[in-house]
Amino acid sequence: MSRSVAKTIADAKAEGRGVVVGYLPIGFPDLATSVEAAVALADEGFDILELGVPYSDPVMDGPVISRSTQLALESGFKLKDLFGAIAEISSRVSIPLLVMTYWNPVVQYGIERFTRDLLEAGGSGLITPDLVPDEADEWLEVSDRLGAERVFLAAPSSSDERLARSIATSRGFVYAVSTMGITGTRQDVDHAAHTLVARLREHGAESVCVGLGISTGEQVDEVLAYADGAIVGSALVRALDDGGVDQLRSTARALTTRRDLPAR
Fold this sequence. Notes:
Largest sheet: 9 strands, parallel
Structural class: alpha/beta
CATH class: Alpha Beta
Strand content: 5-15%
Mean pLDDT: 90
Distance between the termini: 32 Å
Radius of gyration: 17 Å
CATH architecture: Alpha-Beta Barrel
Number of domains: 1
Helix content: 40-55%
Order of helices and strands: HEHEHHEHHEHEEHEHEHEH
Low-confidence stretches: 180-188, 259-264
């Protein structure tokens, strides 16, 4: 059974804190290990999982994630493997599972079929980095009808009109891209993120999570001082690549044990 991202964030707000979202690609370094890695993030205190679908043309991904997804594909990952992995992870954790996917694999699989299979496996919905709301009519209709959550992206370069549209169509949270460019850790989370979140609030956004470039506990704290969630990806993938699930656990623990902040 799927869990609600929106409720998870609302419950955290009631406790006076933000959420930490962890990204890992399914199938890296192999399918079984990717399942164990996702479960490890839940065990170490992550509130929401963002599970990536390996794709041959990952235009938004930086070198760490691009390499991991390419290795997953070379190891034999097929889209059908996603739903079995989601089902196994869902049976072992109690937090929501979002799938991050480029739009072409969903279209090729069938939008309604993909959504039904995802929900039946225990997933909550999709993050769609290359799909804008203006081009998402079928996804909006299917997700509304079947009850899937959907997360659209907002960037510092987005017009006010585009921000308003992303807010109106997102279900769960709006994904605020903290920097212009591709994913990857950075020494400092871009100050543009703070401005972008403020703009989203001005347009009525209730839940905003910030991603791209967050890699330390200090950066998680910084983001959660003004946003509802911090999304960590490349730092986790690198830890898994460098030292397996054990090192991933250590990295995850350092990111999540810092997040209990005073109520905003």
